[in-house]
Structure prediction request, 572 residues.
Amino acid sequence: MIRDPEILILGAGPAGVGAALALADHGVRALVVDSGFAAGGQVYRPMPDTFAPNGTPGLGPDQEEGARQRRLLADSGVATAFGRLVWSIGTDLRVDALGPDGPEFWRPKGLVVAAGATERVVPFPGWTLPGVMGLAAATILLKSQCMLPGRRVVVAGCGPLLFAVANAVVKGGGQVVALADLAGPGTWLRAMPALLGRPGDLLQGGAWMARLAAKGVPLMFRHTVREARALGAGLKVSLGAVDANGRPMRPARDRTLEADSLVVGHGLIPSTEALRLLGAEMYFDAEAGGWVPRLDDDQRASRAGLYAAGDGTGVRGAVGAFLAGRIAGLTAALDLGRIDAGQHARAAGPLRRRLAQARRFGRAMSRLMAPPSGLYDALDAHTVVCRCEDVTRAEVNQALESGAADVNQLKSWTRCGMGPCQGRMCGDTVAQIVALRTGSRAAAGAWTARVPLRPLNVEALAGDFDYDDIPLPTAAPL
Amino acid sequence: MSLRIANQVRRGPAVTLSVDGQAVEAFAGESLAAALWAAGRRALRQSPRAGTPRGVFCMMGACQECLVRVDGQRALACQVAVYADMRVETGAAT
Ligand SMILES: Cc1cc2nc3c(=O)[nH]c(=O)nc-3n(C[C@H](O)[C@@H](O)[C@H](O)COP(=O)(O)OP(=O)(O)OC[C@H]3O[C@@H](n4cnc5c(N)ncnc54)[C@H](O)[C@@H]3O)c2cc1C
Ligand code: FES
Prediction:
């Protein structure tokens, strides 16, 4: 590993790998830091190296692309620091991480943030029960562990991962008891032209939909999970119809099914803590998944030396992430004086054209992933919104009635978002509820990012050191 | 039927963990979250305020619901790989 990288890349998903490859092309000393144990990010999360694939992995051609990117990264000679969780970034771009060797820090001249996204799950009664898992979470279990989320599974939510996961469950020998999709077939038909622009992609929902129907999986369009209850070691899952806005309809016709597991997800949210910590200018873009940084055409954020790429800048998928990462790397090389503007333009031009194409697909995908607003209206008073602190919708409403005007006030009044997940699970839902009152997500605001970016004690696994050894960096202006 | 999909992969050497004092079979390198999931150990802790059972939810180190103790230290089950004789305690970490 190197001690003095010129550019530090946070995240080794496709965006981070793209940036690393571009920097290596121009002789920039770069370091990629990731909490995972290999490159690939969420989409290409590899199997443990003790596993040897001997069949067609359930989630298809992504395995090969992941292996290709890991090979390119290794061949590029770019330094990597895996197993390191970045927990602080100072205004001087000092990056602090905690890993197997204890605390470490670097002071790069530039930082490429390629931190990816987290999953959104809109709460419903029973969503905290063991046996209820995220839809994107289930892809990790399926592709990196070759494990079924259950023998009998209900798959629910919205977006292309629904069909990807259901298909992988069936392929792996499990049973999909039902697939409940918030969207109707018409929504899928309208998205089809853009989705088919990327044949062979994991997210080609259409082909899978047909295959699942042929296998007799009940496809329940315009349906949502009303409730999950524990039943022995398994679950009882109630599904019911919704209108085009996600509002409940015909409750008398709700159906209750027995299953081992419920896999449910409502799209992805860009992870922007690092950018917000550095005071990068942000704006709210519902279609991109939430708050995103304002970037120029070359992936520069609103302060010198700060670049960003990938799903952490707006959810557009793995192909777009890789291309945007390459452009970010080229721009960092330009700003370091390693290439001139002409070279940059010649290299970035074709990437940008391909990126525009990838984003067309990405946008169609994000639209399918966005939960309809009626889901939040339907959230009943007793439902837990904040998992960490067990804060209910009623408690959130009470704080709003007492005058909490934005998400930060709401947090200090209810403790919603103060728990160990630091609001990653409830932040979007809370903001959505606040926005029902304030009129917009922009007015509802976003939680202030704070150090440590993740709870540290949890990760300080193997180190032989004290917390006193961890130097506290100067806080960024909040 | 096991949750481990057999025909897609050859797993590493079998290992035995101790989970709350009971032997659990797993495979070297497997995610601890996956090993516990396959063993039917789905409730890993209780929420501090309401005391309701919680388990693996995000699989990516974000939700913190899979917090357990591994050889005495707090760890997220979804972020560690199992090894022989790993000692895991559920319900003990807050
Ligand atoms: C759980 C999950 C599963 C997904 N599965 C699929 C799928 O199967 N197919 C698909 O097409 N899309 C999937 N996606 C969508 C995903 O966002 C892809 O579009 C793609 O992975 C985005 O690439 P990226 O490089 O922008 O980010 P990512 O691939 O998410 O990479 C970001 C990397 O940054 C690292 N990181 C973030 N913060 C820190 C920190 N503080 N310290 C250290 N490291 C950090 C993470 O460990 C991660 O490896 C999934 C998303 C999620 C959240
Ligand atoms: S399952 Fe969410 S942190 Fe492990």
